[in-house]
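User: For documentation purposes, I need each entry recorded in a consistent format: the amino acid sequence on its own, followed directly by the corresponding structure tokens. There are two entries in this batch. Please keep commentary to a minimum and don't merge the entries.

Assistant: Recorded as requested. Entry 1:
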Amino acid sequence: MPKKTIYWLCGLLVLVALGFYGFTKWQEAREKVDLWTVVPDDAVFVVETNNAPRFVEHLQQTDLWATVSRMPYVLRLEDQLVLLDTMAAGREKLKGFLTKKNVLVSMHVLGREEFDFIYYVPVNTVVEHRYIRTLVENLARNKEYRQELREYQGFQITDIIHQRNKEGLSYFSYHNNLIISPSPVLIEEIIRKINRGKLESPAKDYKNTNYLSQPDVYANVFINYQHVPDMLGVFLRKDLQGDVNLISSLCRSSLLELKLDNNRLFMNGFSLPETIDGSLYSRLKGHKPKTFKMKDFLPNSAAVVLHMGLDKMGTLRGTPGKGGPSFADTLANSFAGELGLCYLESYNTKIATEKVLFAQASNPAYTSALLNRLQPGRTNGTEERHGKNMIRLLTTRELPEQLFGELFRGFEQVYYTTLQDYILFTDDVQTMRTLLKEVEAGKVWSKSEALAPMLEQMQQEDNVGLFINTANAWNLLLRGMNPEKQTALVRHSSIIKKFNHFSFQFSAREQQYYTSLLMRHQEESSVKAVLASEGFRQEDVFNLRSQVLTMAFLTQYPVDQSDEVVVQDSAFVLQGLSAQSGKKNWADSLDGPVVGQVQQLAFGEDKRLKYLFATPNRIYCIDKNGKDVNSFPFNLGDTLRLRHLTVFDYSKNNNYLLAADDHLGNIFMVDMQGNLQSGWSPMRLDGRLAAPPQHHRVNGRDVILVILENGFVYAFTPQGETYPGFPLNLEKNLRSGVYAKPGISFRRSSFTTVTQDGQVVTFDLTGEVTDRQQLLRTNRNSTFELVPEVGGKSFIIARVDPGRVALYSQELKLLLDRRFVTSSRKEIQYFHFGGDRKLYVITETGPRKAYLYDVQAQPLGQEPINASAPVTVRYNEVQNQYTVFAPFRNTVQKVIVQGRD
């Protein structure tokens, strides 16, 4: 055969081989790949959407967008998308490229402190290939970026690095799909998975489920709970890891549909249980979900609530010991129904958060009898009466953990009481007292207007539920974060707190859990936008015949429980006005000006609210018509000049005692029939009181705490006898009272005050000073006072200089420093309505102006409010609005102030 023919045959074979190779590669490129199968198995979340631009367009029309668009990640992404659109030649834009395209995003944990994302994008048509090629070529020409090509296990990876900040991303192509990530490590992990040849979806158990076929669903969301603890471990302290691991072991995975509404993002779907031994599911298997009735007792101050529904709570402990069921098993199994661990709002990141455990009992009387067997003796301090409730102390260490497992540790000892069929446990008696007060006052979830939408939209029954009020939980979140992440959390606080309510629930359905996640965003409205631009909006002016003497006292009209404002004018007429219309409900002419507060008590045979107050030498109690109640007023002496009237109710059973102190330091105490009490007729002290006396119950003993302007502190028994260690001499003058934190003993009770020259002093009930700190005096005329918030749960410290006021937090950090027009006396008030809803009010008595400042110490409104006395404030959480009642001349002004987002 001629050589020429041989050469042609060889050339033809080479062409055929090249053609076959090219055809094979073309076929491989055209081969459809399920992108889920290339997702690494350690993905924490995988989100699949089939029309990302449609989701973004809807999001931009909601209240959520104003917050989401401020997130640093979204801001960076927007900048990158704008850059990509400028780099892409022609008419094709990224929005058109992604429309009706199934795109995946997965999240992965990298080590202990990092996480990153992978993006999976199909490239289906010639036009799309040309779009990507043009984009890459233009990026290569841009001097701000550097491109590097490298081979890794048979695949070409392109790394794009920004020249200045060194941030970048890596990508490679696989069967006409772009796989992109800021992390080269994750790209290499996918290539290794491809080369192993065993491509399997981490969501293989849901291969027949696709929520994207529904018109109102924007994404499938897959959650891998086996790796959730790793993700949370990036943020949380290590000592919380055990709890996270146990809670995450309820399920191994979820596939949820993502939907979007005006101010809420919600996901619904199903989860597969984690069946390994020791998992939370192994303890809850077979239990039916329980209705969320606990909302009737959960206080509005709740920050985080873990809720469980169980047929028998003893299963949370694990299996009984070899010796058979123990007394702890019997006690634990007497509880059935709902179990809830509630962490309350904390006002300080340095102290442990108060918590309450709610456990439903099948037979509360039987369960209480079993609990009492743990401590049969009833000595002083082991029980106390609080209204209709008996609070008992059990010194058994970590009793909730013994009964319900390791999730409920942290109770060194417990106080318990019964509310209907719930047994409540706390580790601090003051926490229990406060909780009972809030329940009695109706400050609970089921009666909260702000919580009503969440309670309506969430599952009404569950086996496991987690609920978070972001504003209330802020200090708890800070305390739980590892130090490296706290700074980032604080930096993004305004964004995070806008998502104010969060719920995540699991409810057993056959062999699965129906799962729902709900994130509610703070309501926005056009009304709020108008108010925000105007600052203040004056609603009403209530006119009186004479000049107003007092501040406006907020009360309830006993006839219909409507809101009411009580004021006194210069003719000494005390009157109740409707807070809505200003209509006069009642009036009473008095013998002199009201001193101190106007208070309301349920008193008398009808148990209706009455008005209680004092003038310089009399104590009054009047009914809904402004008429004196039988045996009132009490005349304590025509020569007296009373300063305060204080109500004591030792056992919270409406057995009131009234304490009145005068300008000479005498304290009178009478019952509601006017009988002077032994030891208090009067109690004569050597100085005037700096603030009204306080009552505290510690370890079963009642303490009357009195602090004088000359720096002496007294602790009395109800009979007027002095406790050992008192009087305590603080050796400095005072002009304010004390902030109390009663503990489980006299020594573990803490009281804080500030002297007039700026010493912050803390002492206990043994009469020992435990701490002294000196605040900076900027002027020799500087004076300091402690200003408790109206509810008494926290305080600030005010430093007043001539023409200047500075405010400090409980941690003694500067909150505010402002100069004022005059050097006249300043009235300082502090309101805290939970979370960041704080209001500081400074009233200048000379110009008669009230200045309002928010939690960031920024002025609310462009102008101050006219006010001749301290203001009264009510808060509307739903609309984030403050209603301010300010007396001025012969009017009471009702002013709406919009809170700042």
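Entry 2:
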Amino acid sequence: MPPEPEPELEPRLQIIKVVREDDLRSQIGKDGHYFDLVDFSRIRAFHVPLLHRSSWLKNLVLKFNVSVSGCGPNDKMGHSVLAGHCLPVKRNYPVSLDFIVLNEANRYVGMLFVKALSRPSDILPSLRSLAGFPTHEEIELYEEIKFEPVMCEAINIHDTFRYGQIQSGDIICYQKSPKPENRYPSINFFFQHVHDQKEVQRKVQALEEEVLVLKRQACLEKKKANMEYDELKLERDNAVRQVDELRDQNRHAILEFSLEDLEQATEHLSDVCKVGDTEYGRVYKGIIHKTTVAIKLSCSQSLFQQEVSILRKCRHPNIVSVVGVCSEASALVYEWLPNGSLEDFIVSTNNSPPLSWRNRAQIIGDVCCTLLFLHSNKPSALVHGDLRPGNILIDANYRSKLFNFGMSNLFLAPGTCPPNLTARLPYMDPEFLTTGELTPLSDIYSLGVIILRLLTGMPPLSIAKKVAAALETDTLHLMIDKSAGEWPYTQAKQLAILGLSCVEMTREKRPDLLTKVWKGIEPMVTRPFVPYFHSASEGSCAPAPAHFFCPISMEIMKDPQVASDGFTYEAEAIKHWLDLGNNRSPMTNLKLPNEDLVPNHALRSCIQEFLELQRQRGHIPDR
């Protein structure tokens, strides 16, 4: 059998890049490249079979009309680099040189063919012409040896090119002979400057890349934070939705009682169990499921329906809780509050002990918070409509709870005139009497009258005129209810001014409940920290003694000082009081005999001992 023919091998190829003068002109001086001539990665490459390399070069000369100045060393990619120039071929000039002129543009100006035995001085006119220099301009020539590190040697223009070992493809730089004031006195200085500039550019580029990376990281972090925020917001929205659902369930979680249940609880609605008889209906005290409750038989079905509707919408700590209803008897079953109403305390019904000024301030704050809750109801505000001490109940802790919603039905029904108008009239909004329209500002008017009553203990009729007159004559301290204890005069005066602003005859002049009324009341009823004394025998907590608190700042004193009125104040608070030019007592409003202050060491020692005891028992954190 004849042997199988061997497979033909693909011819070996060599990659050759042709550098033309156009490439030099387009690249030199751009992007900081002044002396490296060209970027080989941007030069067109040719794949040439090694066997046909010489014939290819002949065709290249004919095709591009170039003069091949030499086949230099390989570039960084291992490609052969062929330098060519679009000039007529001059075979009698064996040396071709590239020239760069050093001026403002630092540009490539061209290539010259010279004889090896000629001198640089012979081509000075041509160099001046290439650069556009004047005819007699003195110039200096340098040969670039290395760029990094900078190495450049001056050329003696009177030596031949061959003697100076200048060959084809060398780079010759030249410039005007520098003057003393020039920035770069020699090309070496300029080379170093360019080198430094490239280093700065490299660092700037590195910093820009780092900034870009940081921006990307920040963007990712922001996206991550936004995602976490969206997740948390979703969780919050779900939690709010669940709370709303539970609240809706609780709103409807009102027990339904039968008439028989009510009769059993009140001994068949016996007068013995009756505790009140008002325009809203009869109120009984009873026991249902071993729990003491208040049972109100509404005077009308419409009033019953309205109050049930309101109580289903709002649950608040300062609104009397409804336990259940009896539709058959139009009755509501409430929690039982043993202390009665605020009116009972003001007029001392059944010898009720007078409320202290602290309790009175707290009750005012409770009522204000409850009205804020009602008035913020959506889509429309809820108005109590009959806010007066008789409809404010007091629990065992002397906190207030609103009661008896629905005055609007009693007053707005055609042809009706509610009973007990005399008791209600001083608290009624004057504009309501003329327009028949109830608004949240109607409740603010009623609150103002309640504030003045708790402050003075006086009957409500014409109370605003009397308090206003006392403020004008500086005799308010004589009107303050003494049974409330030593009410700080500064607090009392603030309440008097606030109460008067609430009882303005026109609604437009009354203050906003949140930004004005509550802002004035809040400091009186809230403190950042109220210590409690723990009783080991009773296992319960009791508030700190009242005389530990400064009457001005309402906080436990750190540095108690006795003023000339005989009362003890926190040093910083009483000094600030005196610095404002006040010469009257913050407690009595009487003129101070002097502005002397005496440290109350005994009280300070008691307070420190008390606080240290609370820290040891863990009731307050260590400092």
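Summary note for entry 2:
Residues 254-336 form a domain with the Phosphorylase Kinase; domain 1 fold (CATH 3.30.200.20).
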